[in-house]
UniProtKB/TrEMBL annotation:
Highest classification ranks of the organism: Bacteria, Pseudomonadati, Bacteroidota, Flavobacteriia, Flavobacteriales
Domain DUF5675: 5-113
Protein's UniProt name: DUF5675 domain-containing protein
Domain of life per record: Bacteria
Alphabetized InterPro entries for the sequence: DUF5675
Amino acid sequence: MDLLLHRQYFKEGTNSALFVNGHFICFMIELPWLKNKRQVSCIPEGIYELKPRFSNRFKDHLQVVGVYQRNLILIHPANDALKELEGCLAPVSQLSGIGKGWSSRLAMQKTLSLCHQAIERKEDISLIIKGPSLTLPKGEGM
């Protein structure tokens, strides 16, 4: 299963929308892009493997595998990227600002449910992260 994350970058944080098969799942919040610096930057655009993970702190969550020069990048609940994330991603049900959202636990459960269904079907799970699309003015083709 491929999860597609469409990002919008801002100085204060990164807001994204998560899709599977063209269907909107939830929003995601992250730290701003600061050249992939550990604990203060979102991760680079690219394709990553997702694996289920459990910890006492976050309970059931996901790990993003294969991030260049980074490890233990997680997808876990959080509602404020600057206060609660150290390079990880957080699903939210609704955006409330740049790098901020509401009802993260609900969005996390929705995301986990989709991923667990794929795991039961013995499918690999990929996270494809893309930045903003290039929009050309009318009449200016490539």
